[in-house]
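ok so I'm stuck.
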Amino acid sequence: MQNMVFEEKDLVENLRQDKTRKLAFHILVKEYQERLYWHIRKIILNHDDTDDVLQNTFLKAWHGIENFKGESSLFTWLYKIATNEAITFLNKKKKRNIFSPQEEIHNYLINSIESEEHFSGDKIQKKLQEAIIRLPEKQRLVFNMKYFDEMKYQEISEILETSVGALKASYHHAVKKIEEYLKNSE
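replied:
not stuck anymore, here's the structure
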């Protein structure tokens, strides 16, 4: 067990075996926890809610490892789960509200930035976050994944299950909207 090699294919194989599953899962969490946390945090913004969504992400991975086909990387698969969990969380927030869902989600996210004790950004970073929050959901996801996570369009395409061309258009529109927001909020 101590000589296990942690190549991705070996990690997946160890996750599927009862004898090595717990250690392999511990390694998986240690390897991806921080990146997934920040990916989810950019979508949800609130630290406590992000922790909950991250925990749900790893639970889904634990229960769904048998369904992992290896057509994408383990990293991409986990990002997809995390993205879907974050979107599901936000959609549940929308359903609990009787007002305009899009505006309420924007207000929730903006309030999260303003009240978040873990947010350490300056005024410019806060304005950027406000601009990003105002984007439609897909544009916000694409912008965060491309700009902050520095993911390739192909990886984003696998996670969001959309074409690279559509992603490039979404990113372009997002950048234009952010620039416009920043210019008009001076």
